[in-house]
Design a protein that fits this description.
Layout lengths: L3 H7 L23 E14 L2 E7 L4 E7 L5 H9 L5 E10 L7 E12 L13 H6 L1 H4 L3 H23 L3 E2 L5 E2 L10 E5 L2 E5 L4 H11 L1 E9 L12 E10 L3 H22 L1 H6 L5 H4 L7 E3 H10 L12 H8 L6 E4 L22 E6 L4 E9 L3 H10 L4 H9 L8 E7 H9 L20
Parallel strand pairs: 3-5, 6-10, 12-13
Antiparallel strand pairs: 1-2, 1-4, 2-3, 4-5, 7-9, 8-9, 10-11, 11-16, 13-14, 14-15, 15-16
This protein binds 4-amino-1,4-dioxobutan-2-aminium adenosine-5'-monophosphate and magnesium ion (MG).
Length: 448
């Protein structure tokens, strides 16, 4: 008991393992061997001398069969007392059994109770949304939520991998900022010691500076919008991936987007088939997501909407019904290109022959999911960016550094922002964005 490691290990409250400790998803590699599983009771049934305990450990579910004559009487009694979500450490021998969920079962050899759970509020019966949201910290333990979170990780891993493989460098942007990026109406105000500050709406402006330093960059982090709209597509706090590329025009920007989105969708189909099955996701529409994606000018989208009976005028911004009407014309995500300058952010490059529209595109996802990406070519001309900052009534002093980027080796550059929860929602076909993030922040909710 001399070393620091030994002293700490002996104080941690976990008994020494009786057999190799294995995640449930890995029991397949241990058929015929005794293993130790550490998890929680998900469900149970018993018939006198036999108990059938379904355990979960976050990696999967497994049935443990406890027989009165194969474990000690104390262990058997402990098994009988287990309530839903009690934490346990179980040892047993792995058996392949095609009838078992997951294909494997454990013939129990010992059971240790770690903590007996009180009456668990979330039961297999149906619960209302508000109740589940109040219990989000517990709701996360259900197989459906687990599946969504695993898909979310596949998405962010896939995005990072795709970008890193192409030489993009991750450059985090600050969350506390002095200025706005996407208009002042949704700014989340806070204080920064003596002065006013805002939670970042977008890391883009910093990504632009980073792109002039490293060429191809991205930022992936939380962004904040004090959106007063209570829709199933808006979060107050959401995660955004924002690549930014020097010497890149809007045409190339769209190629990057369609290839990256297609890669990630196909990767989720390949690596997360089991999770998509838990969600009962029809994967046929996702299989069609391959580059290139269709592209339509905003002008033509307006005509399309009119033809379909929508009251929509050139210059209006799309609402959900409009995005729906456009996307149902296509099987793949579709780019709408060339939005009116007046309804877009200050930094977007105008079309050279038509200053009333900008070199910007939104990527609209199929199946009713609407905008998942907003992207554009950025103004690289010094005079024009100065003029826009003035026109948008932005305090110039806070943007001097941003203007500098146009003074010292300015180049055409482009980038885009992908809403992670919107992307995950579409892939998982969720009703509402709230399930795509562990702890959603909504207009009327900051708990838990
Ligand atoms: O279109 P947006 O506002 O674009 C930007 O912020 C740019 N600065 C991005 C860039 O070019 N670097 O937002 C980008 C994406 C949207 O397409 C949407 O997917 C997501 O961010 N998004 C939201 N997701 C959830 N809740 C909200 N309130 C969102 N607002 C935007
Ligand atoms: Mg947008």
């Amino acid at each position: 008991m001399g070393s620091v490691e030994e002293k700490v290990a002996a104080s941690g409250g976990l008994p020494p393992a009786k057999a190799p400790v294995v995640d449930i998803m890995d029991v397949k590699d241990h058929v015929g061997q005794e293993v130790e599983i550490r998890g929680w009771l998900y469900n149970r049934r018993s018939s006198g001398k036999l108990q059938f305990l379904i355990l979960r450990d976050g990696s999967g579910l497994i049935q443990v069969v406890l027989a009165a004559n194969s474990v000690s009487p104390d262990d058997f009694a402990a098994g009988n007392r287990l309530t839903q979500e009690s934490s346990v450490i179980v040892t047993g021998v792995v058996r392949a059994d095609s009838r078992a969920p997951g294909g494997f079962e454990l013939t129990g050899t010992s059971l240790r109770l770690v903590s007996l759970a009180g009456e668990y509020p979330i039961t297999p019966k149906e619960h209302g949304t508000e109740f589940l949201m109040d219990n989000r910290h517990l709701w996360l333990r259900t197989p459906r939520q687990e599946a969504i979170m695993r898909i979310r990780q596949e998405v962010t891993l896939g995005l990072r991998q795709w970008l890193a493989d192409r030489g993009f460098i991750e450059m985090p942007s600050p969350i506390l900022t002095p200025s706005s990026c996407e208009g002042t109406s949704t700014l989340f105000e806070t204080t920064y010691f003596e002065r006013k500050a805002y939670l970042s709406q977008s890391g883009q402006l910093y990504a632009e500076a980073a792109a002039m330093a490293l060429g191809k960059v991205f930022t992936l982090g939380p962004t904040f919008r004090a959106e007063k709209s209570k829709t199933r597509r808006h979060l107050i706090e959401f995660w955004m991936l924002e690549p930014e590329i020097a010497f890149c025009d809007q045409a190339e920007n769209m190629v990057i987007q369609e290839e990256m989105i297609s890669y990630v969708v196909q990767r989720v189909l390949a690596n997360r088939a089991a999770e998509l099955a838990v969600l009962e996701r029809d994967t046929a529409p996702l299989q069609k997501v391959t580059p290139p994606f269709p592209k339509i000018m905003y002008d033509d989208a307006v005509e399309l909407l009119k033809r379909k009976g929508h009251e929509f005028n050139w210059g209006d911004d799309f609402g959900t019904p409009h995005e729906l009407a456009i996307t149902e014309e296509f099987e793949k995500p579709v780019f709408v290109v060339g939005f009116p300058t007046a309804i877009k952010a200050f930094y977007m490059q105008p079309f050279p022959e038509r200053p009333e529209i900008v070199l910007a595109a939104d990527l609209l996802a199929p199946e009713g999911y609407g905008e998942i990406i907003g992207g554009s070519q950025r103004i690289h001309d010094l005079d024009l960016i100065e003029q826009r900052i003035k026109e948008h009534n932005l305090p110039r002093a806070d943007y001097e550094w941003y203007i500098d980027l146009r003074k010292y080796g300015s180049v055409p550059h482009s980038g885009f922002g992908l809403g992670i929860e919107r992307f995950v929602s579409w892939i998982c076909k969720l009703e509402h964005l709230r399930e795509a993030i562990p702890f959603p922040r909504l207009l009327n909710r900051i708990y838990p």
